[in-house]
TrEMBL record:
GO terms for molecular function: protein transmembrane transporter activity. It comes from the Bacteria. One of its GO terms (biological process) is protein secretion by the type V secretion system. The lineage of its organism: Bacteria, Bacillati, Cyanobacteriota, Cyanophyceae, Coleofasciculales. PANTHER family: BLR6126 PROTEIN, SLR1661 PROTEIN. Residues 284-599 form the Haemolysin activator HlyB C-terminal domain. One of its GO terms (cellular component) is type V protein secretion system complex. It holds the Pfam family ShlB. This is Outer membrane protein, OMP85 family, putative.
Length: 640
């Protein structure tokens, strides 16, 4: 029989509802969104981890490929003055010195190792260069001597070729070493390190004759073809060019260039992209032709789930709409709204790109209105409302296809009030003022690290929250929770592909604080997005820890190899505890743990269903007969 719910047990219901739209960093345990944060890292899709690196289209001919390389070593005094030199003698070949000018990439040891591959046949012969070049005829007629002399005569070109190969193997495809001189036993090699002269950007536009967008290498557009190529200037050209130029230093390295092209391919505003290096006819300089397609800037989704607290109605419907490139290329405005029988949650956000490293500024407003709908409290007309305003600056310091490290700095102002008899302000719990009002003005400093590989991904997240007194934040004496606080939230998440049909998802998060917190800042556990087997937000505390492990087992795939039917056995656990001096008391059963099984159905890329059944390993005294208390959860999502 379900335990009766008292008014005392309802004291924290409304503040816990506010947590649903509180700090965006607060990660959820929903396995459908493995890596989720408000900073924009987004969901990591495993098929994305094994995609090949964007390939640069090769030149049309061998002659064009050769013309990409630097040539005609400059015989100028200025070149020698502008470039440092590496000089070293060849072991056991007295009188032979190698001098390399123009190298800015490789160390002395790396150059020596490359040269040694060529000079090896001459080493340990103890023959001077002068003797090989001026020996009497009786020596020159010997085969061994002739072979050595032939090696010496070809040595300068072979050394230049070895250094060129060193550049090529490291991805510097338009850099080349050439012989400058060979005099008095000194082989002088000059290196012309290649660069990128110009980036031309073309958009591939779908025409009426085509059924789909394509990218083409054709330089000339004829009538009645499937696509039309248009050179792009202005904002779009700047957006793409600025990002590509992060990988186009001197000397030009194709691996770094491909990294930037791959990041652009993953950009949600880009439908497809490819590039081709084109010779310019100038020594060591090439052009880059880039072809790309745009995607529809409008996105939307509708969803239904039972991830809301039963006190305001567990079943909810939601819609999310977003539009990119509204004011500038790469920006995004989003609107979402979800509703239950007692809750109405709105979230409006705008994200503005600031630089080519994808630094962003995010503005967010989230007003919420909630009414308690449980029959036990019908006579009290309990309701709550809260407004959240947030601004966050996020800046990646390392950004590569397989690795990202970013810092963020944000400020969040949140104000909430609870009412009884519909309009009488009253506090629920200890902390809000006598009218039930609580305010927090929080400075947040976050750090994120993401590492991908072909077999999985790591995400490490950390956020420090500093409660301030700005904007009349709640202030109380002693250990009563208020708006002045310090807390730390850490996250570790791992996705590991065990085999072709097994994907392991492991998550853990920990919150610590040296003081007492208002309910909106506390750590919550329970529900379909946290510890399954229990109702949403069933426990909260100043400090907390949560752990989840899930094995996604693919049962069926479609013709393209994408999983369409999966089983997901899981184990969830969590615990919360308060600061010893917090006057708000917690129930004795603060540890939750459950085993369960999930079913994931994805009949098409835009539609997904998920059903979970969690079996609690310890029953709570306040367990009810809601579907969540019985361990049943569902979610349906359709994207358009």
């Amino acid at each position: 029989m379900a335990a009766p719910l008292s008014l005392q047990g309802c004291l924290l219901i409304l503040p816990l509802v506010w947590l649903m739209t509180g700090s965006g960093f607060r990660a959820t345990a929903n396995p459908d969104h493995v890596f989720t944060s408000a900073t924009g890292l987004g969901e990591v899709e495993m098929q994305h981890l094994t995609d090949p690196v964007v390939q640069l289209s090769p030149p049309n001919s061998e002659a064009e490929a050769s013309s990409l390389l630097a040539s005609a070593c400059p015989d100028t005094h200025k070149f020698h003055q502008q470039h440092s030199a590496i000089a070293f003698p060849v072991e056991n070949i007295p009188g032979l010195t190698i001098k390399v000018i123009g190298n800015t990439v490789f160390s002395r040891e790396e150059v020596m190792d490359a040269v040694r591959e060529v000079t090896q046949p001459l080493e340990k012969r103890y023959v001077t260069v002068r003797f090989l070049l001026t020996a009497p005829e009786k020596y020159t007629q010997r085969k061994e001597f002739a072979d050595l002399k032939n090696v010496l005569e070809n040595l300068p070109n072979n050394i230049a070729g070895a250094i060129t190969d060193l550049y090529l193997t490291k991805g510097y495809i338009n850099s080349q070493a050439e012989v400058s001189s060979f005099e008095n036993g000194v082989v002088e090699i000059c290196v012309i390190e290649g660069s990128l002269e110009q980036i031309q950007i073309f958009e591939i536009i779908e025409t009426e004759e085509s059924g789909s967008r394509q990218i083409t290498d054709s330089e000339n557009q004829e009538e009645n073809t499937e696509v039309q190529k248009v050179e792009v200037t202005g904002r779009w050209a700047s957006y793409i060019r600025d990002r590509i130029q992060l990988g186009t230093g001197t000397p030009l390295n194709t691996a770094e260039l491909e990294d930037q092209l791959r990041l652009l391919r993953d950009d949600p505003i880009i439908g497809g992209i490819e590039a081709r290096l084109v010779a310019t006819g100038e020594r060591g300089q090439t052009n880059l032709n880039v072809h790309f397609t745009k995607v529809n800037p409008f996105e939307g989704s509708v969803r239904a789930d039972n991830f809301s607290p039963p006190s305001v109605g567990s079943e909810r419907l939601g819609v999310e709409l977003s539009h990119r490139n509204l004011a500038v290329v790469g920006d995004r405005i989003s609107f979402s709204r979800s509703a239950t029988l007692g809750a109405d949650v709105v979230d409006l956000g705008y994200r503005l790109p600031l630089n080519s490293m994808n630094g962003t500024l995010t503005l967010r407003i989230a007003p919420n209105r909630n009414d308690i709908i449980q029959s036990e409290f019908d006579d009290f007309d309990i309701r709550g409302e809260t407004d959240l305003y947030e601004i966050v600056y996020r800046q990646p310091l390392i950004r590569k296809p397989r690795e990202e490290f970013a810092l963020s700095l944000g400020f969040t102002f949140q104000e909430g009030q609870t009412f009884i008899f519909d309009s009488l302000g009253i506090p629920f719990g200890i902390g809000p003022d006598e009218d039930g009002v609580s305010r927090t003005s929080v400075i947040q400093f976050g750090q994120e690290y993401l590492r991908r590989s072909s077999r999985g991904a790591w995400f490490l997240g950390s956020q420090f929250s500093f409660g301030t007194g700005f904007f009349d934040a709640t202030a109380n004496e002693g250990e009563v929770p208020d708006g002045q606080f310090l807390s730390w939230l850490g996250q570790v998440q791992r996705v590991q592909r065990i085999s072709g049909n097994h994907l392991l998802v492991v998550q853990a998060e920990l919150q610590l604080t040296p003081g007492s917190l208002l309910p909106a800042q506390q750590f919550v556990i329970g529900g379909g997005q946290s510890v399954r087997g229990y109702r949403q937000n069933v426990r909260s505390g100043d400090n907390g820890f949560r752990f989840s492990i899930e094995d996604r087992i693919t049962l069926e795939r479609n013709q393209t190899g994408v999983s369409t039917l999966l089983l997901a056995p899981f184990f969830d656990a969590g615990i919360v505890w308060n600061h010893p001096d917090n006057p708000n008391q917690l129930p004795s059963d603060r540890f939750l743990a459950a085993l369960g099984l999930g079913l994931i159905v994805q009949p098409e890329s835009q539609l997904s269903f998920r059903f979970d059944w969690g079996i609690p390993l310890n029953l709570l005294d306040d367990r009810d007969d809601n579907f969540q208390d019985l361990g049943y959860y569902f979610s349906v999502n359709y994207r358009f």
